[in-house]
Design brief:
Rossmann fold; 2 domains
Length: 284
């Protein structure tokens, strides 16, 4: 089961500006969406997600609110197209939860290095680019750039070289095979972070063009957001958080001078929440 992170904090910030029309740009299994509809009895919610499997579960989880929500399979970078299709010109609040869901991590699409699955990592299984393509067909220098920029991996050069040499012998086809190539190169990091985390993050961001999509989506929200409307974003690594922090500072009234972090109790109940940062802004 996927537990929504910072559920009460994010929903309270989102609906605290008033209004009734909200867009959950990463509806996932519907955890945040359900709480929005519960807490704001007049609310109507548009839910967007790339993942068709998540949307099937979201629809089931939101069945008690029939007539008060619409769900769309789309990249949130295309939120303007979704809202036009829905006939919406103004919105009271946008929510982004940028974390990978348990549905994806526990599935067989290669998001997790704890399973030996095919190298896929597509949030939308209809997209063309896969992790297999990135690992086996990207030039070595491009791999190094991705690992350095998107994974903030200090050993990017060494990892890219090892991947390039390994794939000369045979294609790297699964997460287990990728781990076998890169793990011996990396020192064991202290704490709970697996040494391959940065590499897998970088590849996933490249496959799904996550930072580009986020930057595009945030800019598009400004056209639709009403004065007093709010944008609430849950990010899970520093690249996302810096982008969100800069956007809010440049375009909105800052509602969270420092990011809200999960309590020790929430982290104990849901270890996946430990890296979450919640930021919010309001349109003047």
């Amino acid at each position: 089961m996927h537990l929504p992170v910072l559920l009460e904090e994010s929903v309270d910030l989102l609906i605290g500006g008033g209004g009734r029309l909200y867009v959950d740009c990463t509806v996932g299994l519907g955890g945040h969406a359900k709480r929005i509809l519960e807490k704001s009895s007049e609310a109507f919610l548009v839910g967007i997600d790339r993942d068709p499997y998540a949307l099937q579960l979201a629809e089931e989880n939101l069945k008690d609110f029939e007539g008060r929500f619409s769900l769309y399979q789309a990249n949130f970078a295309d939120l303007d197209e979704v809202l036009r299709e829905e006939g919406i010109s103004k919105v009271d609040g946008f929510l982004f939860d940028l974390g990978v869901s348990m549905l994806q991590l526990k599935g067989s699409r290669g998001f997790s290095f704890q399973r030996d699955d095919p190298l896929d990592m597509r949030m939308n299984p209809e997209d063309k680019l896969t992790a297999y393509e990135v690992i086996n067909r990207y030039p070595e220098r491009e791999l190094e750039r991705i690992l350095r920029e998107y994974g903030e991996e200090p050993h990017a050069k060494k990892i890219a070289r090892a991947i390039a040499l390994a794939r000369l012998k045979k294609p790297i086809e699964t997460t287990g095979e990728l781990l076998a190539v890169i793990t011996p190169l990396l020192p064991q990091r202290k704490g709970k972070t697996h040494p391959a985390t940065r590499t897998f993050q970088a590849i996933r961001i490249e496959v799904n063009q996550e930072l580009r999509a986020l930057e595009t989506a945030l800019q598009k929200t400004l056209k639709f957001l009403k004065p007093g409307g709010r944008i609430v974003v849950l990010s899970f690594h520093s690249l996302e958080d810096r982008l969100v922090k800069s956007f809010i500072k440049n375009h909105l009234k800052v509602l969270t001078k420092k990011p809200i972090r999960p309590t020790m109790e929430e982290v104990r109940q849901n270890p996946a929440s430990r890296s979450a940062r919640l930021r919010a802004g309001e349109k003047p």
